[in-house]
Amino acid sequence: MSAGLELKDVTIRFGGLKAVSELSFSVAPGELIGLIGPNGAGKTTVFNLITGVYTPTSGNIHFDGVSVPGKKPHEITRMGIARTFQNIRLFSSLSVLDNVRTAMMGELKHGIVHSLTRGPAFRKQEALVEKEALELLDIFGLADARDKNAKSMNYGDQRRLEIVRALATRPKLLLLDEPAAGMNPSEKEDLMHLIRFIKERYNLAVLLVEHDMKVVMGICQRIAVIEYGCKIAEGTPKEIQCHPKVIEAYLGVSVES
Amino acid sequence: MDQFLQQLLNGLFQGSIYALIALGYTMVYGVLRFINFAHGDVFMLGAFTALGLHKALGSAVASMPWPVALVVVLVASMAVCALLGILIEALAYRRLRHGPRLNVLITAIGVSLFIEYSAQLLFGATQRPFPELIPRTAIASTGNLTISVAQVVVLLITVALLIALRFIVMKTKMGLAMRALSLNPTASTLMGVNNSVVISFTFGLGSALAAAGGVLYASLYPSIEPFMGIQPGLKAFVAAVLGGIGNIPGAALGGLIIGITETLVKGYSQEIGIPSGYSEGVAFVILILILIFKPSGLLGKVEREKV
Amino acid sequence: KKSDENVIVIGEVAALTGNTATFGQSSHNGTQMAVDEINAAGGLLGKQIQLVTEDDQSKQGEAGTVAKKLISRSKIKALLGEVASGRSLEMAPIAQAAGVPMISPASTNPKVTEAGDYVFRVCFIDPFQGTVMSKFALGKGWKKVAILTDTKQDYSVGLTEFFNKHFSANGGTITGEQSYSSGDKDFKAQLTAIKAGNPDAIFASGYYNEVALIAVQARELGITVPLLGGDGWDSSSLVEVGGKAMEGCYYSNHFSNEDQSPAIQEFVKKYESKHGAKPDAMAALGYDSAKILFDAIKRANSVEGPALRDAIAATKGYAGITGNISLDANRNATKPAVILTIKDGKVVYTETIAP
Amino acid sequence: MKRYSAQIALIVALAVSLGISLVSNSIDAYYLDIALTVGINIILAVSLNLVNGHTGQFSLGHAAFMAVGAYGASIFTLEASSKVIPMLGGPGAFATGIAFLIALIIGGICAAICGWLVGMPSLRLKGDYLAIVTLGFNEIVRVILQNTKGDGMFGGPLGLKGIPPHTTFFWTFALATICIYVVGSMVNSTYGRGFLAVRDDEVAAGSMGINTVRYKVTAFVTGSFFAGLAGGLYAHLKTTISPEGFNFMKSFDIVVIVILGGMGSTAGVVLAAILLTVLNEFLRDFEEYRMIVFSLLLIVMMIVRPQGLLPSLPFLNRKKKSA
Amino acid sequence: MLEVENLHVSYGSIKALHGVSLKVPQGSIVTLIGANGAGKSTTLRALSGLVKSNSGTIRYDGDEITRLAPHKIVSRRLCHVPEGRMVFANLTVHENLVMGAYLQKDKAWIAKQTEYVFHLFPRLKERENQAAGTMSGGEQQMLAIGRALLGNPKFLMLDEPSLGIAPLLVKAIFERIVEINKEQGLTILLVEQNANLALDISSYGYVLETGSVLLEGPSADLKANPKVQEAYLGG
Ligand SMILES: Nc1ncnc2c1ncn2[C@@H]1O[C@H](COP(=O)(O)OP(=O)(O)OP(=O)(O)O)[C@@H](O)[C@H]1O
Ligand SMILES: Nc1ncnc2c1ncn2[C@@H]1O[C@H](COP(=O)(O)OP(=O)(O)OP(=O)(O)O)[C@@H](O)[C@H]1O
Ligand SMILES: [Mg+2]
Ligand SMILES: [Mg+2]
Fold first, then answer.
1. What residues have CB less than 8 Å from E130, skipping those under 6 apart?
2. How far is B287 from chain A (nearest CA, A)?
3. Alpha-helix residue ranges (DSSP H) falling in E121-225
4. Is there a contact between C154 and C138 (Cβ–Cβ < 8 Å)?
5. What is the DSSP letter of B230?
6. For residue B143, what pLDDT band results from cuts at 50, 70 and 90?
7. What ipTM was assigned to the predicted interfaces of this complex?
8. How is this protein annotated for GO cellular component (chain B) (predicted)?
9. Which of A88, C346, D224, E49 has its CA 20 to 30 A from that of C198?
């Protein structure tokens, strides 16, 4: 098995509906791949399959050679896969900073006993966690909002915070589900830069679901297109843009990057 | 064999009365998503209202044939309790509608205590006899089997109310509004639903059902006192959850299952080696076992939230 | 609630609210009547009696707290209550430790008075009553009896235990042992099982609340044999609720409403005019517990703990409403039991069984 | 100094309770009883708050764990402490105290084991379903205890009596302080914020690498342990316990304290435990109107202060610190 | 037809709108654009009565509707497709649509309009009996719009209809919006992040910033405005 993420003939059914059907594709380490397709094509479902929210009806998913299905979401996260959610799911009663810190549990060397004794090692660790969390927030321009309640932020900031929180788990693979939704074009521009930046900085592989073609075409190295749960095309942005099937099913007209 | 059949019938009738109380419980829960602990107390008020009405009407009722008298007293108590339910909602719950759900739970406990202790003050602590609204004479006693008129009537009324309630919730516009409201109250007002009216209606209906339960229960077990609602209320709650809370046929099914198993455990306690004193816990054991295997109850839909 | 020079403060703990309020209210009514009477008659030792009653809401834990409150805040000289043995057991060690004599009107569990020499009761205890009913049943020639116990009430469990012991040891057969919990309304399952055993009688050791319904349902199921029980049956609502179904059933009690002795008739009349109902056993016991206390105060001519304790302990042949009461070495009342039966909707006396 | 403030507060509180304990003989028995009840209620409410408030589960069966602890501790005291005390060096105050502590811990451990047994299968249930299962467990415990033999170890419906009154001011408040400290420290750390995350969004928490099941079970078992301790204290305060005293209404009482205090707010819950216990005593003067007044107060409180007495606002606390 | 004057709204202590005024003439499409948190959704919520305004007036067809309850406002045929779709998750697609027609009495009209919605969004017809909550994001958006159309609106408020919608469908939806506007004579107030598209189909636009109107004008002018281009149109 190779490094990175590999899906092989993955299928999931919901009752009579085959939401994802015999889907295969892979994401190599450090790659930035787009996953696009019409509404209801099964993109979010693919994310849910990778992160253990759903278990595939058949087929297999490997990450760095280890089989994923059957593992609990938190175990998969510990393997190095993190995600954001299409419908924002922040910890609504926690502050912005705490949302990020909570995701840094994997960093901790000590658990419950440590938090009871509260010795110097504990303090050091807490300080470290705080520092790193603030660093991440700073990248996304959210450091000033550290004490705000997560739910009182506007939509765009909440989306950014979701990305920060996912990054805080120190993933090797980041799954982004429509990160640009609800942003205006100039904010989208900024987001594209940020995604590129964190990908380089943290040496991430990224799987991006997004309906904004400017964003997808602008930053993805390769794009997979699915419709009704099946892959209908895969290739570079250039290839995809003029792929007749993709145009028919998804784009409408070919777009320029 | 006869004995087993008799026990099964005992269980069926016992279960049908649980089912009857559970209907109102589950409906209010289904719409408003909170456990109305005061349901059992409205049930008790239903019985006391019927007693009061029966006394007040006195000879008028006495001269009627019993089915007429039953309908008069039943419908009147249901109406009184419906109004009471609406009043309780308006005074105690309405302002909490947008608050955390657990607050409503505490309020419900408060309302429940209030009703119980006020009733104890008003009616006294001692049990009172309840008039024989439905004859408890045996319908047919073939050999060793006995079924009373009252039992059959209660079963029939339960079935009728189950069908009526199911119809209201699934087939009428009000029912659809109730379900929509339960899912998203903001969206439902955007559809033009007057949420307050729907909630009042729900409470009124739920309380009327509770009252019907109270009257029929008291007809079967003719002694009433201010705390009489606690235990059936709890059992009905269990029945509702067992069937899948919010699910109306589920509540009926849950009631029957609890009634029958409880009766069988009591009836065969010596044979199976569980003293019948443990039967009080049987409902809960069944509940826990079923929920472990079916976390949303027997007929409840798995509310898997889409991520 | 200040301690006044000219009054003797007596404490009472009763369940005035909650699910056993029906017993607590009765015993309180009886106690209060005794206090009112003595005050009307000029009080004791030249002082009026002041009764301070605390409600324990029928809840565990409360009885102990209010007993402490009465002793340390109200500075009571003696403590009356509780009806339920469980709650009396909470109060007893507190009264004992404080050296305040305590008289329970109706806690029948033997353990209650084991707390120490300051703790008394005016009712008989479970072993006695269980045995009495067993003797009675055997005397009637009923050799096969089924038992129905309220497992939530230690009282009922106790009666059953001693009934069972005596009955089995003296040639009787128990055809079936069933149980329920107070608050239950449906007993058909147990009764159906009991019916299959074909007993000569059913010993229902619980309280009247359930027994009335048990009788009703037994008759519905075609069970015609009599039901037997203890003083927990004693309440006018037994017949009100049970109606015809209670006909021909028997229970043991401390006294009979129908007893024509002037003291009892006067008590019944007074109580009825005040509370609109005939006094039940709890009321009579509450009344007697207070009266015995007053009698002891008079004899001791003091309200100091040790003196009062000794005077109570010395109670012999006191003519109470609930019989001639003598306290034995274990501070339990010994008195005869009367057997009552229901006939034409009335509770009538049948016989007296001495201890 | 500031860095160790939590530990210092803990030690100071322990010392104070020991100090007060030394003079507690001169405290009026009734007031002492109230104070100890306050302490026990604090333990019950703070520990339930870990489950219901911080972790967002909804248990309605706390009284069951209290019962298990009460019975466990009492049975140890009644049956075994006469053998243990000589081993600890005779019947002095010290040996008795240690034997009592052992009894309490045994009660706590019994309760924790029950918590684990109930929690493992049932914590995957959500919201009201968990509520009813815990309530059911509560009733099952009660029914089982009630149906034991009257002359047996558990004492049947009458329960256990003659438990020595070992519960002192020191033990109660020392354990209350430890309970507050443990719950507070657990929640107030990077590890412990996992509890809050589980409450806010279980799916997201799982996706952030948080083992949601373990957190829920940890909270549940810890909560049960302290409920068991509280039960032991209660038994050795009241000297008699009976199954009926641990019915679901008792669980409701604890839930009421938690919600009235403010879910997830330790300070609020402590305040509510004090206020409600004292209120209970005040209302005695209302006699038969007492519960009516109480229930009305409850309803009004919920309308007037739905967020509880002292709502938890973790992000506000943080702000103050960083400012 | 709709006039908003000096509207102030706050959420607890947070002020979201500081005096917004706008006009939506009969039969027009007017768009609101602005950055995240500018107060666009809040404005719509205030119009449909979901949040109470602190001060200011909202007039519709000459009547003041500022203090009316949401269901009263809907009965005046102002319909709102809210942010986040808010479909009834456990109801089927069909039942969601029936809910949309809650205040409609005319069965024939409902049947006709349902057909029209299915014609606009064929996917909804395919999934008529699926629980709305299990539909994909885009599918839910279609349902939300369809549901609002069944309320027989004269005035339709759309909060980011293109959010999470595939490009092909975005185009389709915008075409439909224009179509509805023309064919059914609906007045439309559109909130969009996709400002380019929104300005293309609207006749007039408002730019909101931190709770007040920063700029307004005919859509073409706004689109040409360099400031708008830089801040909202992505250069
Ligand atoms: N739990 C579920 N039960 C039933 N059907 C489901 C469930 N989850 C997803 N589906 C169906 O599977 C299909 C794929 O959904 P998914 O959310 O993956 O789409 P998507 O590609 O993310 O679409 P969008 O771009 O609109 O977000 C949809 O038709 C949806 O209705
Ligand atoms: N329920 C709420 N509670 C508190 N503050 C809120 C709430 N909803 C919105 N806000 C605040 O009100 C302001 C305006 O929010 P609004 O949602 O109207 O913005 P918007 O323009 O629609 O932004 P977006 O493009 O992100 O949807 C923001 O600062 C937001 O944080
Ligand atoms: Mg999606
Ligand atoms: Mg918005």
1. A17, E92, E93
2. 27
3. 122-126, 137-149, 167-183, 195-201, 219-224
4. no
5. H
6. low
7. 0.90
8. plasma membrane
9. C346
- pLDDT of D315 strictly over 70: no
Residue B298 lies in a domain: no
C-alpha of residue A198 to centroid of ligand 3, in Å:
23
CB-based contact C25:B121 (threshold 8 Å): no
Residue of D71, D240, D246, D253 to mutate when probing chain C, most C C-beta within 10 A: D240
- Is the residue at D263 inside a domain? no
- What is the tens place of the pLDDT at every residue in C243-269? 899 999 999 988 887 778 888 889 999
Let me know if residue D22 belongs to a domain. Answer: no
Q: Which two tokens stand for residue E26?
A: 């009969």
- Touch criterion met for A and C (3+ Cβ pairs within 8 Å): no
Min distance E89 CA to chain B CA atoms (Å): 7
CA E84 to centroid of ligand 2, rounded, Å: 12
CB C142 within 8 A of CB C134: no
Least confident of C345-349, D149-153, E98-102: D149-153
Supply the range of the domain harboring residue D119.
Answer: 30-246
Residue A130 inside a domain? The answer is no
Q: Could you tell me which chain C residue has the CA closest to the CA of D142?
A: C152
Answer whether A89's CB lies under 8 Å from A53's CB: no
Answer yes or no: is B179 within a domain.
yes
- Name the domain count of chain D: 1
Of A90, A93, A154, A162, the residue with max ligand 2 atoms within 8 A of its CB, to mutate for a pocket test, comes to A154
CA B96 to chain centre: 24
Residue B191 distance to chain C (closest CA, Å): 46
Cα dihedral E196/E200/E205/E209 (nearest 10): -10
Q: For chain E, 235 residues long, give each residue's pLDDT as a single digit of tens.
A: 899 999 999 988 888 999 999 999 999 999 999 888 889 999 999 999 999 999 999 999 989 999 899 999 999 999 999 988 899 998 999 999 999 999 999 999 999 999 999 998 888 999 999 999 888 888 898 899 999 999 999 999 999 988 888 888 888 888 888 988 998 889 999 998 888 889 999 999 999 998 999 999 999 999 999 888 887 776 5
* Most ligand 2 atoms within 8 A of CB, residue of E36, E52, E81, E208 to mutate: E36
Interface of C with B (CB under 8 A): 17, 19, 21-22, 25, 149, 151, 176-181, 183-186, 188-190, 192-193, 195-196, 209, 212-213, 216, 220-222, 235, 237, 240-241, 243
Domain residue spans in chain E? 2-232
Domain extent for A57? 5-80+171-256
The residues, ordered by sequence, that sit 6+ positions from D178 with a Cβ below 8 Å of its Cβ are D10
Taking the CB of residue C138, how many other CB atoms lie within 10 A of it?
16
Do the two chains A and E touch, given a threshold of 8 Å on CB pairs and at least 3 pairs? Answer: yes
Q: Do D287 and C68 touch (CB under 8 A)?
A: no
How many domains, in total, are found in chain B? 1
How many CB atoms sit inside 10 A of residue D12's CB? 11
CB contact under 8 A, C151 and D234: no
Residue D279, domain member (yes or no): no
* Domain assignment of residue A27, yes or no: yes
Number of domains observed in the structure of chain A: 1
Ligand lying closest to the C-alpha of residue A211 = 1
Residues spanned by the domain of B229: 1-293
- Alpha helices of E58-121 — where are they, by DSSP H? 70-75, 93-100, 107-120
Q: Express each pLDDT in D210-226 by its tens digit.
A: 999 999 999 999 999 99
Nearest to E99 among B176, B301, B306 (CB): B176
For residue E100, which of A70, B193, C170, C80 has the smallest C-alpha distance? B193
Question: Which of A11, A17, A21 should be mutated for ligand 1, with most atoms under 8 A from CB?
Answer: A17
Q: E73 C-alpha vs ligand 4 centroid, how far in Å?
A: 20
Residue A94 domain-assigned (yes or no):
no
User: Is residue A109 one of the residues assigned to a domain?
Assistant: no
Residues in chain B: 307
Residues in chain A within 8 Å Cβ distance of B307: 44, 48, 53, 85, 87, 89
